[in-house]
Design brief:
The structure is a single chain. This protein is rod-shaped. It is mainly α.
């Protein structure tokens, strides 16, 4: 009978151990499932933050590009007005000189004046082209600088966000935006 009682206790102990193993296994499956859910939520949150940051960077870049385009247009308008004024002054000077000298010179002088007029036009055109090239270069440099400030470098998201905010603040201070 003692053997029967020992066998019964052994069997009960085995059943309890088996139940404990089953319970532990179920808990481990539950923990793994919960961990997967948490990881999925973290990934979704990170993707949402990344998308928001991309959108913010894109908007900031577009805004900076629009500001630069407006500044470029204003500079071109100023150069056109300056070139027109210069041209009008040159024309007025030329007409005055032509009127004064027309009375005293022959057709030979008129051909010399035409050559001078072409030189002036060429100089004005070269001046305009040089000014446009200088402004274009300045704009390209500013766009590159703003792109670098807006887009940032390969750094952590927190550092990148801080760098972008600082760059925008610096740009506002430097350019009075």
């Amino acid at each position: 009978m003692a053997d029967n009682n020992d066998d019964q206790k052994l069997k009960e102990a085995e059943e309890r151990i088996e139940q404990m193993i089953n319970d532990a296994q179920e808990r481990s499956y539950s923990i793994i499932h919960d961990a997967r859910d948490i990881a999925s939520q973290i990934i979704e949150g990170a993707e949402k933050i990344a998308q928001e940051m991309r959108l913010q960077y894109q908007q900031e870049f577009e805004s900076a590009t629009q500001r630069q385009a407006k500044a470029y247009e204003e500079m071109l308008s100023h150069i056109r007005a300056e070139a027109l004024s210069l041209f009008q002054n040159e024309v007025a000077t030329f007409k005055k000189n032509l009127g004064d000298k027309a009375q005293t010179y022959s057709e030979d002088v008129a051909s010399k004046l035409e050559a001078e007029w072409q030189k002036i036009n060429q100089s004005v055109e070269e001046y305009k082209q040089q000014r446009l090239a200088d402004i274009d270069t300045q704009i390209k440099l500013r766009v590159d600088e703003i792109a670098k400030e807006v887009l940032g470098k390969a750094i952590s998201k927190e550092d990148q966000l801080g760098t972008v905010r600082q760059a925008i603040a610096d740009a506002k201070k430097r350019h009075g935006w």
